[in-house]
Design brief:
Length: 323
C-alpha cells in the first residue's frame, strides 16, 4: 500500500528572495524526478515535491539543502494543499491567476497513469472550482500594476513611445493580450526566437506587435519608452546581452516582473522590481481586499475534499472528478 508525502518551502515560511533563488536552481530537476514518480513544483515563491515516501526521502537533502522544510502526510492532505495553491490562496498576490496554469504545466512532466498525477489533478480541479465559486480573483494583475506605473511616469496625457516586453512566455503573452500597450505608439516583444513566437501569435489576429532579437534593441536612448522584463529564463550570455541593450536604451522606467531581480546595477535607471515598495503597495492593497474571503474559500475546499475522498482510496489508485 502506497503512502504519499509532500515536502515544501514557500514565501510564507522562508524569505521570498531566498526561495526564488533556490527555485531557479531546482527547476531543472523536474524531468529527472518525474521519472521516479515525483511531482516537482517550482515557482517564483515555492519549491514543493510530492510522491511516494521512499522516493522523497531519498532526495529531500538534495532538494532542500540548507532549508527547513514543511511536511504533508497522506494523499488527502496533498490534495488539500494543492487545491489551496490552485485557488490562489497561498500566492503572494492573493487570487492571482498564473499559479493555476503553472500547476497544470507541472503535471506535463508526470506519467498520467501514476497515482500522484491523479492526486494532483484532483487538487487542481477542486481549487479552481472553489476559486470560481467565491470569485477569489486578484483585484488587479501584473497588467494593472504596469498600467498604474505607466500613468505615474507619463502624467497629464503625455504619450509614451514604445513598450518593450522582454519574454514571450505565459506572462509576456498575457501582458500583450491585456491591452496594456494601447497607450503606446507601438509594442515590441524581445525574444531569442522570433520565428517561433510569430507562429504562436498567428491565431491571435487582435495582437499587433513587432518582434526583435535582444541584440537588436538599444541603438540609442529612448526616454519615452518603457521596458518590462517578463521572463526569468535567461542564461549568462543572454543576460549580458539584455543588460547591455537596456543600459543603452535608458528608458523612462524598467518594470521587472521576474522573481530574481534582473538588473544588478540600476542606480542610474528608474527601476521597479517585485521587492520595491512601489510594487509591494499594490500587493498589500489587493491582499487586504481578499483576506476576508479566505475562511470561506478554505471551508469550501474542505467540504469538497470530504466528498472527493470517496473516490480517493488510501492507495490513490482510482480517480474521479467531483467538480
Amino acid at each position: 500500500m502506497s503512502e504519499f508525502l509532500g515536502l515544501y518551502i514557500d514565501h510564507q515560511k522562508t524569505e521570498p528572495f531566498a526561495v526564488a533563488q533556490h527555485s531557479a536552481k531546482m527547476k531543472t530537476l523536474a524531468t529527472e524526478l518525474a521519472k521516479v514518480g515525483i511531482l516537482l513544483l517550482t515557482t517564483c515563491v515555492r519549491v514543493e515535491a510530492y510522491g511516494e515516501k521512499p522516493a522523497l526521502r531519498s532526495i529531500n537533502s538534495t532538494l532542500f539543502s540548507g532549508f527547513s522544510y514543511e511536511r504533508i502526510e497522506g494523499a488527502a492532505a496533498i490534495v488539500k494543499r494543492l487545491a489551496e495553491i490552485a485557488s490562489g490562496a497561498h500566492s503572494q498576490i492573493l487570487g492571482e491567476s498564473y499559479i493555476s496554469h503553472q500547476l497544470v504545466k507541472t503535471l506535463e512532466f508526470i506519467d498520467p497513469n501514476l497515482p500522484i498525477f491523479k492526486i494532483a489533478r484532483l487538487g487542481i480541479d477542486i481549487g479552481r472550482a472553489a476559486r470560481e465559486r467565491h470569485r477569489f480573483f486578484a483585484s488587479f494583475n501584473y497588467d494593472q500594476i504596469l498600467q498604474d506605473i505607466v500613468a505615474d511616469r507619463f502624467p497629464d496625457g503625455e504619450r509614451p513611445d514604445r513598450l518593450y516586453v522582454i519574454g514571450s512566455g505565459m506572462l509576456g503573452l498575457g501582458l500583450i493580450g491585456s491591452g496594456v500597450g494601447e497607450r503606446f505608439q507601438s509594442t515590441v516583444v524581445v525574444t531569442r526566437n522570433p520565428k517561433n513566437l510569430r507562429k504562436r501569435l498567428r491565431p491571435r489576429t487582435d495582437v499587433e506587435v513587432a518582434l526583435m532579437r535582444p541584440q537588436d534593441i538599444g541603438d540609442g536612448p529612448e526616454p519615452q519608452s518603457i521596458v518590462v522584463i517578463a521572463t526569468a529564463d535567461v542564461d549568462g550570455e543572454y543576460e549580458s546581452t539584455l543588460q547591455s541593450a537596456i543600459l543603452r536604451l535608458a528608458p523612462r522606467v524598467i518594470v521587472d516582473l521576474s522573481s530574481i531581480p534582473f538588473l544588478r546595477d540600476a542606480r542610474k535607471l528608474n527601476y521597479v522590481n517585485m521587492y520595491k515598495d512601489e510594487f509591494l503597495r499594490f500587493i498589500e492593497m489587493n491582499n487586504e481586499q481578499l483576506t476576508p474571503k479566505l475562511p470561506l474559500l478554505f471551508a469550501d475546499i474542505d467540504t469538497t475534499l470530504r466528498t472527493a475522498q470517496t473516490y480517493l482510496p488510501v492507495n490513490a489508485g482510482r480517480y474521479c472528478s467531483v467538480i
